[in-house]
Specification:
Elements lengths: L2 H23 L18 H14 L5 H6 L3 E2 L3 E4 L3 E8 L15 E6 L5 E11 L10 E2 L2 E2 L1 E3 L4 E6 L24 E3 L1
Parallel strand pairs: 2-10
Antiparallel strand pairs: 1-3, 2-3, 3-4, 4-5, 5-9, 6-7, 8-9
Length: 186
């Protein structure tokens, strides 16, 4: 081996050793704890909208901040086992109209953690059925809202903070749990 080859080889070994040492100093990551909402796999337009919703709702990670902004708790924890749960809905009635805006979701959806604190998991977009006069359902983020006649609304869930194995726009998230005492069957 030539003198140059030995130096290059030693440089590569040193670089790998230093990189490994630097990585060893990073805190361990738990894949189950890391929200992997983006990329959604549904295209750039949806990913941009999810990023906007996340940016707009970052300030509502606490229910106190949500309530101060006009979001009031309107349900206990909503679940439908074995499919999962939605969680607690905090709704801003001032936003209930026919306008859908990713920066202003009508509902924030939370899960109560074992320590009693609430965790923001997602949002829900709503349009009152009587207000919607078009023949086609309302749409946001490239999705048609679902009609819930019993509730009198068009709705769409978006799991912006807690990924759902059932999909970004699924009604139920199997990762979200309700306590037995606070569960409201949906």
């Amino acid at each position: 081996m030539t003198h140059v080859a030995v130096r290059v080889g030693a440089g590569v070994v040193l670089t790998c050793a230093l990189s490994g040492a630097a990585l060893a100093q990073l805190p361990p990551t738990d894949a189950a704890q890391t929200p992997v909402v983006l990329p959604s796999g549904l295209g750039d337009a949806v990913d941009r909208d999810v990023a906007r919703v996340r940016e707009a709702t970052e300030k509502f990670k606490s229910t106190e901040a949500a309530e101060a902004a006009g979001y009031k708790r309107v349900t206990d924890c909503v679940e439908h086992q074995p499919h999962g749960a939605m969680g607690y809905h905090f709704q801003n009635n001032a936003l209930l109209d026919t306008t859908l805006d990713v920066d202003h979701p009508e509902v924030l959806v939370y899960e109560r953690r074992p320590d009693g604190a609430f965790k923001l998991n997602g949002v829900e977009f709503l349009v009152p059925i009587p207000a919607w006069t078009a023949s086609e359902p309302p749409r946001i983020m490239g999705q048609a809202l679902k009609r819930a006649d019993k509730l009198g609304i068009w709705y769409l869930h978006v799991w912006t903070w807690e990924p759902s194995p059932s999909g970004l726009f699924a009604d139920w998230n199997p990762r979200v749990k309700c306590g037995q005492a606070s569960a409201m069957r949906h």
